[in-house]
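REQUEST FORM: STRUCTURE PREDICTION
Request ID: SP-0412
Submitted by: Lab K.M.
Chain count: 1
Length (residues): 422
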Amino acid sequence: MWQHLKVSLTDLISSVSEAMDLVDSSLVDHQVRTGYVCTELARAAKLQHTADERLFLSAMLHDIGALSPEEKIGIHEIEDLRPEPHCLRGAKLFREADWLAPSAEIIEWHHTSYISHLEEGRTLANENVLLSQMLLLADRLERAIDRTQFILHQVDHLKQYVIKLEGKILHTDVVVLFNEISKSEAFWLELVSRHLSSRLKNRNPLRLIEINFKSAMALASVFKDMTDFRSRFTATHSVGVARCAYGIAEKIGFSAKDLQQIELAGFLHDIGKLVVPNSILCKPGKLTPDDYSVIRQHSYYSNRILSRVRGFEQIAEWASSHHERLDGSGYTEHLVRHELDLGARVVAVSDVATAISEHRPYRESGDQDVVIRELRSMVKNNKLECSIVDVLESQYSDIMGAAFDAQEADAQRYVERYALIE
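STATUS: Completed
RESULT:
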């Protein structure tokens, strides 16, 4: 198979990180700012490059285990350190991808006090303890900033806040590193700069790394889990869309490159749901017009996240168009037939077919007859492409069979690894 898809790792991590922090105005750039503090601590500590990489990855995605906007906001309102489900979930998600797995313990321990490490027989001699302590400091520091006040008016207060954590929460050596980097006004002004994200992209330890299709798929699977695993009813949706889209595209005759891209588009089409509250996304009944207006934003954010990733240009277009319809009645750009290429039309059909075949709290899953009947109705009303539905109907057992197998495997993984973490 064609294996030369190349993706900027920095673009992908940064874009997802920023999107995770869009759920509330109090969280905007939280992980980016935390990443900046960690890069400065790493520089002061003269860390080896591999350790610097692992710390930066951890900082930029440290709240990955908070699977809903409500949970993410909630953990930022808690000052007492305690074992957090989102730390355990985040560590499990990190272990799913080769680029993230070496940093899993850092994520698991980023709310763990130094006293707790000592009680478990761990010291700073364990590099992951040191890195998790740096992340803990950066996370707590960023959360302590008052976003309504000028940063230089807060410096003394913030320094005292960190000093109070020394001994029980933070090791003295980590506080010493903080004292070194926080001496200059430049550190504080950069920390709250509007341009921090773009500057950090250009000088972080991952900036020159490009990943191949295999690694991109592993990361896409993790980011897919962030949205789908918020509910057992949607836990396998995106993998179903990905396999359905791949199956249709293969029957149509897509190139090897485009088959890779359409599978990634299926995995990531709903990533914009990161900004949708669980109270709406997991509502056990029909959405109200107000609910629907909130959920409709997700395809816009899917495009915003993916279009910023070098190497994902085509993937972004196909993924974000999954709710567009041929007559312009879809969302969020109201594109019409001639503005939607074949890949976008395939993903749209795959999303509808997969959704109808899945069980929801307010309806049972649809069998082949129900799926095809609904698709044909949408074709008749000029919503979906007839030729694509023809392919799916004629090859339904092969295409949807593969999708169902992939969903069953993903459902088992969800139950075994995540469903019991609460």
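NOTES: The chain has a mean pLDDT of 92.
Reviewed by: T.R.
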